[in-house]
Design brief:
By secondary structure, this protein is mainly beta. Helices cover 8% and strands 42% of the residues. The strands form four sheets. A four-stranded antiparallel beta sheet has the order 2-3-4-6, with no helix packed on it.
């Protein structure tokens, strides 16, 4: 379902609650969002969706990514807008396509930069951070062309992670 952004002044907790209720109706199972430097908001509305994009100033949303089910893609989650208009996100699916993806500005085709299924973060000093084998790590990253360089540096070992339960675990 497309989202439309409307700017409004929030003068009370009731106003804020109304805005949250509207957003919940569009993204009832959200899987991340990010606000870019140029005023675009990227978000995942659910566990089996592609990413959507909407202008922060106003207007309807549209698809920022497309799922390719023929390749085994199941969802795009945890978008992170990068300086210069690029975007990284996590693709869930089979082992050959799952991982962290980079998409350049102006519709540059996305490509996998890491095989880990992890939420990534960008440090503006030029590092990409993600979880690798249970440890938080960082590596030099150029957001303009989506390239990693240098050695992986461990930052914190054995960090906690909540595994998502498989459907059969719920019954």
């Amino acid at each position: 379902m497309p989202v439309e952004i409307r700017l409004s002044d929030l003068n009370s907790a009731a106003d804020a609650a109304a805005v949250i209720a509207v957003l919940d109706s569009y993204a009832s199972d959200p899987r991340g969002g990010s606000w870019s430097d140029d005023g675009e908001i990227y978000y995942s509305s659910g566990a089996s969706s592609a990413l959507s994009q909407v202008s922060a100033s106003s207007g309807p949303s549209h698809r920022a990514t497309e799922l390719d089910s023929s390749r085994g893609e199941q969802s795009h989650r945890f978008p992170l807008a990068l300086p210069g208009g690029a975007l990284i996100y996590t693709c869930f699916g089979n082992d050959e396509i799952a991982g962290i993806y980079w998409r350049g500005p102006a519709g540059t085709p996305a490509r996998r930069i890491l095989p880990e299924v992890s939420r990534a973060s960008y440090d503006r000093r030029g590092y990409l951070l993600w979880v690798h084998d249970g440890s938080l790590v960082a590596q030099r990253f150029d957001p303009a062309n989506g390239t990693l360089s240098g050695e992986i540096s461990p930052l914190a070992a054995q960090i906690g992670a909540e595994e998502q339960a498989a459907a059969e675990d719920w019954y």
